[in-house]
Amino acid sequence: MKASWNGAVIARSDKTIVVEGNHYFPPDSINSEYFTPSDFTSHCPWKGHAQYYSVVVDDKINQAAAWCYPRTLDAAKEIENYIAFWRGVDVEES
């Protein structure tokens, strides 16, 4: 699978985990140069607190377009620290 936005591949992995229709990418599959921390957070009753990142490519910013659960609840341990995308980030087979 690959995740891309604004013409750049921001993540690529053959070891994503699909949860609720979202592909979660392992932390080592992320091109960190495109990510910057966001102040946005959310909470899921079975996964825990999510931390968000903005995606920055060629000076264009996609605010809070990626998220992860740094410390999941027990039911979601398999995706702890994995990153998922939304807000126009294309996730498709590579």
Automatic annotation (TrEMBL):
Entry superkingdom: Bacteria
Domain named DUF427: residues: 1-87
UniProt name for this protein: DUF427 domain-containing protein
Organism: Shewanella nanhaiensis
Taxonomic lineage from the root: Bacteria, Pseudomonadati, Pseudomonadota, Gammaproteobacteria, Alteromonadales
